[in-house]
């Protein structure tokens, strides 16, 4: 966080604990090419994890009729050929 931002927050708030989440999150500096700072990054990641886990129709959740399986969608492919494709893409 920039020193000027810290000085501004100190002038507006008596204690660090008084700073609102939104204000503090917006004031954070994004790192490593991110759009948001570490606090919002953590909140967004947690939300995506919970949304995925709570969606019974998400293709990757096991044990559902809509679950993605290699056998169901890629019957002619072996594990080795699927791994080769995924390794070339990632």
From TrEMBL:
It holds the Pfam family An_peroxidase. GO terms for biological process: response to oxidative stress. It is found in: Secreted. Keywords: Glycoprotein, Oxidoreductase, Peroxidase, Secreted. PROSITE patterns: PEROXIDASE_3. One of its GO terms (cellular component) is extracellular region. It comes from the Eukaryota. InterPro entries: Haem_peroxidase_animal, Haem_peroxidase_sf, Haem_peroxidase_sf_animal. GO terms for molecular function: heme binding; peroxidase activity. Gene3D superfamilies: Haem peroxidase domain superfamily, animal type (1.10.640.10). The keyword Cell division does not apply. SUPFAM superfamilies: Heme-dependent peroxidases. This is Peroxinectin A-like. It comes from Diaphorina citri.
